[in-house]
Specification:
By secondary structure, the protein is an alpha/beta fold. It is built from 16 helices and twelve strands. The protein has a seven-stranded mixed β-sheet, sandwiched between helices. It has a five-stranded mixed β-sheet with strand order 8-9-12-11-10. α5 packs parallel to α6 and α14 crosses α16. The longest helix has about 30 residues. It is globular, with a radius of gyration of 22 Å. The mean pLDDT is about 95. Catalyzes the formation of L-homocysteine from O-succinyl-L-homoserine (OSHS) and hydrogen sulfide.
Length: about 400
């Protein structure tokens, strides 16, 4: 039997990695190598951990001895994923969850109690709006929905009991933008915590913490995995928020990411810049091409000059993103005829994938809302949301142009 190898030497410290460019951080950050010195990060499929002594177990549970206790609390593979994403986002800490909605719900419930008040933008992903509008009030937490683009509405909604502001930008599916820095200033003046769902922009294209947000949440299922494989979510925040609110909530309620899913997400981060850049380039090209095609009445893309908030998009984002939203003539019937003729682009409610995916929000992600509520959010029967993948943009253009002939 050969002698157990020692830990390989560490070449780059976390502080040195933090000074590197984002693309390098996403390859080098957060690595915990075993004594075997593996190149690819290890996948630790374990539920629990053993201790050298009863005294060490006691110290571990008291928080006096660093290390892992139980994978519901933390895991070496999940820890690598969290550390790497925190380095990219510029956050002090990150905690992974089983899904994006687990991250959203945990970020809210960990800090709220009966009698508190939440202000949120009304244009939200359907599940997020359910949590704000229906779940929180069950626990005696009041909520107010506002037009996210109206700064006066944010200010007017503040009460003495207001504890949280919540928004997504760009919004799903209308690609409406909220001025994060301006809302952050209002939130801070009110003594509230601003949570930003940054899934559409991705960490490559927008940095909410740098704009004043307190907490950032992701569905890592989307661009971070980016290949339709696994579910995961992430909450990024300050150490104080983690210590005061989040860590105990996650530990006791258990919305834990599986080690395998965390490993898939960790590897996904290595190629995230390449995938987002390619998809975004194609999305911008497609947005321009769609605007010239018959059968389409409106195209929404943040970095097109005809977007209602183009100037804000250029100021707040580093790119226009990977999604294009457009309206097809003929309402629902026209949209369905178009969708059913697509061959390269496939119908799915997912996004941020290597494959181009299209959905009809009014009958899928936002179908539970009344027509009046959807109209208030800017979601109409002919609206289509296109998540642009890695296919050749000319093939995507040809597929869409051919399908539009059915409209």
């Amino acid at each position: 039997m050969t002698e157990t190898p020692s830990l390989p030497p560490v070449k780059l410290s976390p502080a040195e990695i933090a000074e590197l460019r984002p693309e390098t951080r996403l390859v080098q950050g957060g690595i915990l190598r075993s004594p075997f010195g593996e190149t690819s990060e290890a996948l630790y499929l374990t539920q629990g951990y053993v201790y050298e002594s009863a005294e060490q177990a006691e110290a571990r549970f008291k928080g006096e001895d660093p290390g892992f206790i139980y994978t519901r609390y933390s895991n070496p593979t999940a820890a690598m994923f969290e550390a790497r994403l925190a380095l990219l986002e510029g956050a002090e800490v990150a905690r992974a969850t089983a899904s994006g909605m687990a991250a959203v719900t945990a970020s809210l419930l960990c800090q709220l109690k009966t009698g508190d008040h939440v202000v949120a933008a009304r244009a939200l992903f359907g599940s997020c709006r359910y949590v704000i509008e229906e779940l929180l009030p069950r626990f005696g937490i009041a909520t107010t929905l506002v037009d996210g683009t109206d700064l006066a509405a944010w200010k007017a909604a503040v009460r003495p009991q207001t504890r949280v502001f919540f928004l997504e930008s760009p919004t799903n599916p209308t690609l409406e933008l909220v001025d994060i820095a301006a809302v952050a200033a209002i939130s801070k003046a009110a003594g509230a915590c601003l949570i930003v769902d940054n899934v559409f922009a991705t960490p490559m294209l927008q940095s909410p913490l740098a704009l004043g947000a307190d907490v950032v949440v992701y569905s890592a299922t989307k661009h971070i995995d980016g290949q339709g494989r696994c579910l995961a979510g992430v909450v990024l925040c300050a150490e104080k928020f983690l210590d005061d609110h989040l860590q105990t909530f996650l530990r006791q309620t258990g919305p834990s990411v599986s080690p395998f899913n965390a490993w898939v997400m960790l590897k996904g981060l290595e190629t995230l810049p390449l995938r987002v850049e390619r998809s975004q380039t194609s999305a911008a090209t497609l947005a321009d091409r769609l605007a010239g095609l018959g059968g389409i009445t409106r195209v929404l893309y943040p970095w097109r000059e005809d977007h209602p908030q183009y100037e804000l998009a250029k100021r707040q984002m580093r790119g226009g993103g990977t999604l294009v939203t457009f309206e097809v003539e003929g309402g629902k019937a026209g949209a369905f005829r178009f969708l059913n003729q697509l061959k390269v682009v496939r119908i799915s409610n997912n996004l941020g994938d290597a494959k181009s995916l299209v959905t009809h929000p009014a009958t899928t992600t936002h179908q539970r809302f009344s027509p009046e509520a959807r109209a208030e959010m800017g979601i109409f029967e002919g609206m289509v949301r296109l998540s642009v993948g890695l296919e050749h943009v000319d093939d995507l253009t040809d597929d869409i142009a051919r399908a539009l002939k059915a409209v």
